[in-house]
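Margin note from the TA: students keep mixing up input and output lines. Inputs are the sequences; the output is the structure of the whole complex. Example:
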Amino acid sequence: MATTGTKSFQNLIGGEWTDAASGETFESTSPADGETIGVFPRSGPEEVDRAVEAAKAAFEEWRLVPAPKRGEILFNLARILEREKTALTDLMTHEMGKVKAEAGGDVQEAIDITYYMAGEGRRLFGQTTPSELRDKWNMSVRQPIGVVGAITPWNFPIAIPSWKMIPALVCGNTVVLKPARDTPALGERFVELIAEAGIPAGVVNVVHGGGGSVGDRLVRHPDVRVISLTGSRETGVEVLKAAADTLTHVHLELGGKNAIIVMDDADLDLAVEGILWSAFGTSGQRCTAASRVIAHEAVYAALQSKLVARVEKLRLGPGWEDDTDVGPVINKDAIEKIHSYTEIGRDEGATLLTGGEPATDGDLAKGFFYRPTIFADVDPQMRVAQEEIFGPTTALIRVRDVDEAIRVSNGIKFGLSSSIFTRDVNTAFRAMRDLEAGITYVNAGTIGAEVHLPFGGTKDTGNGHREAGQAALDVFTEWKSIYVDYSGKLQRAQIDPS
Ligand code: NAD
């Protein structure tokens, strides 16, 4: 419940902090104990239109600021983020629910991408290449595109906005951010820090509100040239359709159903560590979470008993407490969805080894906690092995050899992350080649991306783009090819002799 002391937040449009024209608001509350984090403007199409107009106007000047200068502002931002890391981490444990170490990691990702992309201000390399004609110069350069609409989920409330906005900015674009309804305070705080770093008014704007109102208007707005969305597959499909009429570029980072393969020659204790971290870190609410474990039959039983023993020792609690291993899930809908999959798994005939219910003892009843859940004897075609649950649930699948393991790992519609534990270099290289995923880890779990490598997935996880690394520049720039003829005469390519 909001009280008179509850902090009110606003949209940032063209450098002005403003409320929604309707005066309507919504609240952000902590998933750990229901505490009110703040009250936010429930914006609509009107606020989006104003923000896009401001971003469009600001683009005309921002695109002309030399890229190294844009980079300098971002270096400044990186230092500000370092200064604010502890406060942002603390806010994240409250608003999103992550445990402290993971919340710190989320902020660190933003710091890392900001330093990395700030340096890009002095690169943004194009190419020069010979011409087929004499006295002619050929080159290609990256150019900014215009207004970028960034639509982000709640599970990486600082990192994901940073992965979209920072490369967009260094490339010379302007941005309208729509943060997730569950983590608006973090989205807003990030934008405040960007403004403090010296980004001019209108270059970054934030509009709070729902996906169907603010998000949809942003996607359909004719002056938005790029939409970068991270969210569920269903939202991705809706956004892609909505953007079709305006032919807006759409960059999608969607769901996953990632597997860890454990071969018969694996270091089992290491594999258990990798599974614990990947399946139950962030309470399983990562797009890269290991929601399947594919174990060779020779180690299946041993792996299962080691895993269950460790999982049952995990301590649930609020993310801000030092000894918490697993925090809450994001909201009531999430608890219901996760629990419905427990029922589905049971009905399908999988064996529930541990967990399978909300945790409500003591203060846990104030929040949304679900016990880490492991299903065994899972058939690869069961729904618990095919669909994204997005909670602390993983499914153990038994296989006979590496061929079957790779087949099962690939036998889903998503293609984000993948992993194999093996000591056999030949097996490792086969997996690196054959796993259908944007990311493969060898002897590590399914999570742990670093910002200077491309991030994203194949198949239904996206539409062919990548976040982070050099690949992100392709989302936020367009290539221009330039031909300079200094021969003084008309030279016709493909026709005249050189
Ligand atoms: P979601 O799809 O419900 O929402 C994501 C964002 O889209 C939110 O800001 C939401 O308000 C907005 N939105 C919803 N409907 C919209 C519409 N019709 N038009 C425009 N915007 C709309 O996802 P979520 O629950 O916030 O996040 C969890 C999902 O995100 C999971 O599926 C997870 O796998 C995925 N995810 C993917 C990655 C990745 O990099 N591949 C990373 C993190 C999360």
